[in-house]
Amino acid sequence: MGKGCITVIKYFLFLFNLLFFIFGALIMGFGLWVLFDNQSFIAVLQESSDTVKVASYILIAVGSLSMAMGFFGCIGAIYEIRCLLGLYFTCLLLILIAQVTAGVSIYLQREPLKYEMAKILKDMIINYTGENRTTEHTWDYVQRTMKCCGWTSPGNWSENVLIKDNSENLYPCSCRNESLPGTDIRDVGMCEHLSSETPIYQTGCAASVEKWLLDNCGVILGICVGVAVIQLLGMILSMCLCKSVVQEDYTKVPKY
């Protein structure tokens, strides 16, 4: 392989590793958002299920490892170190296998995950008091911003312990339809209605929430596909460069 061709491969590999480092940072950032976010629907699931927390830790780990591999790949490419290029290829292959396995597992388990999500939310609605600042207030935020009530329908709230055991006509304040006449509008907790009809939204949140999840899954899926393409290109280029390196020259590596 000509010297000019090797130089082109080396700098292309450096560029791909830089992109790989950036995509790894995006995946890690998404994992941190899932772990620490308390203002979206993810917080409701996270409080009630360990699955989301485990997924966030996996995303953080994969993102961190991708960033580390991008860094080592850059060093191996620029200074033509065969051991780093070989280690880089092996780790890329393992990460790619893990990503494909995780994607297939999630796809095969989508129906059980959907059922688990519905069960978590219905249990939360039954035990809702308006005092849990994380889960319940986040669900209030979801109902208020998506203009919906309950999971499948407003009828889910008829099973709530406060509504069932109270003689007053209560409804969740976050379900309040502002276009209808009624009592003062509050963001969280229970409100009392005096009219014969409850001034709430008449549609459940299931369709809106599923659309929200699909939109966000599309973003993370696009990132993962981008990372996978860069991984494959990085593996091909690293092998080409590794085969072209006849003897390693460690004097190129900067000493600190």
From TrEMBL:
Classification of source organism: Eukaryota, Metazoa, Chordata, Craniata, Vertebrata
InterPro entries linked: Tetraspanin/Peripherin, Tetraspanin_animals, Tetraspanin_CS, Tetraspanin_EC2_sf
Topology in the lipid bilayer: Multi-pass membrane protein
Cellular localisation: Membrane
GO cellular component term, pick one: plasma membrane
Protein name, UniProt field: Tetraspanin
Entry similarity comment: Belongs to the tetraspanin (TM4SF) family.
Primary site of residence: membrane
Stored PANTHER family: CD82 ANTIGEN, TETRASPANIN
Highest taxon of the lineage: Eukaryota
SUPFAM superfamilies named in the record: Tetraspanin
TM annotation in the entry: 12-36, 56-79, 86-108, 219-242
Alphabetical UniProt keywords: Membrane, Transmembrane, Transmembrane helix
